[in-house]
Amino acid sequence: VNIPTEYGDCDAISTQIPPTVNWGNSFLLPPLTSRTNGQRYKIIASANNTIAEIKCGTNLAEITVLSNDGDIHQFDTNSDEYCTVLTNNPSYVAEYGFGRDYLNDGYGDPLLMTIPPL
Question: Are 117 and 25 in contact (CB under 8 A)?
Fold first, then answer.
């Protein structure tokens, strides 16, 4: 898989999404500090009308509404920003690391990891 899809440097990535009973409402999103091109996060809602509040660094929070269960919201962050995600319904959060050809970063292959809830 290429992350993002239009860039090379691909390896297979996969994860097993845990059952919704293990999803949560509060997440701390760590940056991949060795990768200057940042990272991408994905939020999956377990219920209709899930509100996600995303706050990175000192920026104002971004509020996103995921209208239906199973809806997905993706966003990118900088490699030096810690972010938090708070949701009103249990949600799943994953982090994607970009392949090295994206923005000529030079570090690493794509990766995917589950962000455990706090």
Answer: yes
